Amino acid sequence: MSNDLLHTRLVFITGASSGIGQALALRYAQAGYRLALVGRRSSELQTWAQAQGWNDNTCRIYSADVADPASIVAAGTDCLAAQGLPDVVIASAGISIGMDTAERDDIDVMARTFATNNTGMAATFQPFVAAMVRRGGGTLVGIASVAAIRGLPGHGAYCASKAAVVAYCESLRGELRRSGVAVVTLLPGYVDTPLTRKNRYAMPFLMSPQAFAAQAFDAIAAQTSYRVIPWQMGVVARLLRLLPNTLFDRLLAGRPRKHRQDQDVAA
Predict the structure, then answer these.
(1) DSSP letter, residue 263
(2) Which of 151, 157, 216, 251 has the least C-beta neighbours within 10 A?
(3) What local confidence, expressed as pLDDT, does residue 262 receive?
(4) pLDDT at 263
């Protein structure tokens, strides 16, 4: 690798096959970053990257399933060997599947959701943490959701997993305090992606992935510890958090539930 490339900033993004992850890849490319993109559908991701006109010096594709810790850790290790230590690591991969605790199969759905959204996030960061600390700099980004703020009927697995993302990133931020490594937690509202298009309920302040990526890029560059995007959704979420349980439960009574596992979509 040439010295020029080594001095060009590098971002590592999971879930880059579609949605938020892909929009973030485009935004970072526009800013002149080299890209390390991770997806389960690596052949599709490679085809998309080539269509952008990116060569191996600009972008490398890594195949991994973030729900399998060995798989995503291997992708991170491969990135270190092929492209060097990233400046920014974004754990964007996630799944959103409705569940019903009365259904036995949905307990497996919950386990799969946590494996992807939580264990997968920690495994995404793991290969880079020690090296970033030694360097004295870097940014680790966890993509949570406003669904972390209050539990929604039929969303038990997703809401719980995203609340866990917020708590995990907060813990990690404390662990890395004064190391020079920043931890950023982003909470998207509703973004127009394959994860949301089959939703059967209203989605206020729905954003395009590109609009989200633009605001996320700025928040990450500023090393903002916690941000809801868009801010209007943050206001709504805070108000919902303040509602007494009886009023909150009444407000959500009869609200359509998330599609269950036979209609799930992965990022």
Answers:
(1) G
(2) 251
(3) 61
(4) 45
Which of 158, 168, 190, 201 is an active site residue?
Answer: 158
Split into its structural domains, the chain has a count of 1
Residue 158 is a catalytic residue: yes
| Mean pLDDT of the chain, nearest integer | 88
Q: What's the whole-number mean pLDDT along residues 11-33?
A: 95
Q: Is 248 exposed, middle or buried (0-12, 13-18, 19+ CB in 10 A)?
A: middle
Check whether 223 has a pLDDT greater than 70.
Answer: yes
Instruction: Tell me the CATH number at 61.
Output: 3.40.50.720
Contact status, residue 234 vs residue 146, Cβ threshold 8 Å: yes
Q: Quote the domain boundaries for residue 197.
A: 3-266
Rounded to two decimals, what is the model's pTM?
Answer: 0.89
User: Other CB atoms closer than 10 Å to residue 245's CB: what's the count?
Assistant: 8
Give residue 264's pLDDT: 42
117-148 in b/e form (b: 16+ CB < 10 A) is bbbbbbbbbebbbeebeeeeebbbbbbbbbbb
